[in-house]
Amino acid sequence: MANGVDAPEHADALVFFGATGDLAYKQIFPALYGLIRDEGLSLPIIGVAKAGWGLDQLKGRAADSVKAHGGDIKSEAFKKLLSLLRYVDGDYNDPKVFKQLRKELGDAKAPLHYLAIPPALFSVVASQLAKSGCADNARLVVEKPFGRDRRSANDLSRILDQYFSERNIFRIDHYLGKEPVQNILYTRFANSIYEPVWNRHFVRSIQITMAENFGVQDRGAFYDSAGAIRDVLQNHMLQILASLTMDPPTGQAHEAIRDRKASLLKAVRALDSDDIVRGQYTGYEKVPGVKPGSTVETFAAAKLCIDSWRWEGVPIFIRTGKCLPVSIAEAVVQFKKPPRETFGEIDSLGCGHMRFRIQPDVTIAFGTRVKVPGERMIGEDVELILTRQPGVDKPPYQRLLGDAMEGISDLFTREDIVDAEWRIVNDVLGDVTPVYHYEPGTWGPSEGKQLIGRDGPWLDPKPV
Questions:
Q1: Which of 130, 244, 378, 383 could form a cystine bridge with 135, CB 3.0-4.6 A?
Q2: Please, which pLDDT band fits residue 4 given cuts at 50, 70 and 90?
Q3: Inter-residue contact 206 to 316 (CB < 8 Å)
Q4: Would you say the C-alpha torsion 6, 10, 13, 19 has a positive or negative sign?
């Protein structure tokens, strides 16, 4: 039976499993250092892992991590991090490990447990936390992937629900912690001028692109078990789509935004084989860890539809891929042309657009058509940059980890949202469609252009 007691507002200890792993090195230690430096975090921090390490080795790992990510290991903030750090080493199947963890927690009554470990270990750790009393009044943070398909995601949720209430489970999708992703919601709902035209009457189409100009690098084995649909499209890109198209949240409760996102994603029509194009860049099979003859996609483009009054008939195109021309993520909302070509410019694109650049910089731009100087009534398409900011903000993990400790759930994925996301992609996972090859440095296979058809062309993002 799930723990039905809600955790207090503030966590009073942080436990992170997988303390010697890559995620701790790349994200958790820098986030903790930032929270101590910027927000005065002061609570026991307990690392747990099976590595045969001691506390001094973990402190050395923390120093290497913070230094590698631009932190000052001579600062008071880092010294405080070391003073708060504790370590428990052992097998997650061994009850003695969790007995020792309970001892290290001391007087803590509301710990936050962060599972920076493979999902296959979630059940073991959650069960041991419950048996040892470490789950009482506790929160649980879990990392994506939340399953490999809809069924496995639901199985995982059932496992966690045995030991923790849904309200106390925080599923991290780091993209939700990015400032520019939050900026989409803010811009939409803080300005009344956009709402009247944010619907099927004025919007022609929506495009979302998340491109990287590099390959899978040293992640061959992981990527070959996932692919672009599981790794990016099913989570990051559908979250951006939800932020772009959800209805305004009502009320001030933390669940208001997630309620609207869930409602929107449940209205997105499930993809079938005609709605998806998969690609693989030439040379992918030579990456260490990739299986010979792999048909895993490194590129995916999809056409989506939202079955709602607001968005009925508006095509939505999303694409993501490795080894594309640039590393950029942005969303473009294209508006319809005027009902009549007043000036006879039949071939003009002049429908206008709203562009949200997510990375590497943060940009909001408005596309419009203006008259070219001269006697003739002809124009050109221009873009007004409403705001442009450097791509520097609070690191997503620092924001998300701080929110989890405060019990703020807005930026975390809920069980019904995860299920809705998997429902959308479930029928196009695996080898249900062909994989077309494309050359590195191009915008994917030509079949992607056929997918968008007369609703195109694709709006290829350009670097600043």
A1: 130
A2: very low
A3: yes
A4: positive
CB 378 within 8 A of CB 372: yes
What does the angle CA 350 – CA 351 – CA 356 come to, to the nearest 5 degrees?
Answer: 115
Q: Rounded mean pLDDT of the chain?
A: 91
User: Which residues, at least 6 apart from 142, have a Cβ–Cβ distance to it below 8 Å?
Assistant: 115, 119, 122, 160, 169, 170, 171, 172
- Tens-digit pLDDT profile for residues 21-78: 999 999 999 999 999 999 999 999 999 999 999 999 999 999 999 999 999 999 999 9
The mean pLDDT value for 207-230 works out to 92
Domain ranges, ordered by start, for the chain:
13-172, 176-455
CB atoms within 10 A of CB 336: 15
Q: Nearest CA to 228 among 298, 277, 293?
A: 298
Q: Is the peptide bond before 44 cis (omega within 30 degrees of 0)?
A: no
- CATH topology of 13-172 equal to that of 176-455? no
Q: How far apart are CA 384 and CA 335, in angstroms?
A: 15
Question: Catalytic positions, please?
Answer: 236
Give the pLDDT band of residue 129 (cuts 50, 70, 90): very high
Nearest to 338 by CA among 327, 324, 326, 348: 348
13-172 to CATH, choices 3.20.20.140, 3.40.50.720, 3.40.630.30, 3.60.20.30: 3.40.50.720
- The token pair at 246 is 């959800």
Instruction: Write the pLDDT tens digit of every residue in 85-115.
Output: 999 999 999 999 999 999 999 999 999 999 9
Task: Tell me the CATH number for domain 176-455.
Answer: 3.30.360.10
* Percent of all residues in the chain with a pLDDT value above 70, rounded to a whole number: 95
Q: In what order do the strands lie in the sheet with 111-115?
A: 85-89, 45-49, 13-17, 111-115, 139-143, 169-172
pTM of the model: 0.90
HEC secondary structure over 413-436: ECHHHHHHHHHHHHHHCCCCCCEE
Name the residue with tokens 């499930």: 270
